[in-house]
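Student: Please help interpret what follows.
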Amino acid sequence: MLTSTQIFDQYCLEARRDLLEVAALLDRYDAALEREEGRDGNHSTQEAIEVFHNNPCRFLVQNPKWDIKPILIETDTTV
């Protein structure tokens, strides 16, 4: 059985790694959108969040017991 310190050390590093992977994914997605569509990056972050959340594998939450409803982020085009 692991001690509290060992548990923290092991799982904190795993969680930090997962967060860094998410950040890298969003950075790559943002850069790809700018290259493909010539955008200035104003609303690609919202689109990246939508793609990330609606991804079938749920990236971090791959357990089928989790029932995460898809989200749609509407952008205000009047600005």
Notes: The radius of gyration is 17 Å. Residues 64 and 75 are 30 Å apart (CA to CA).
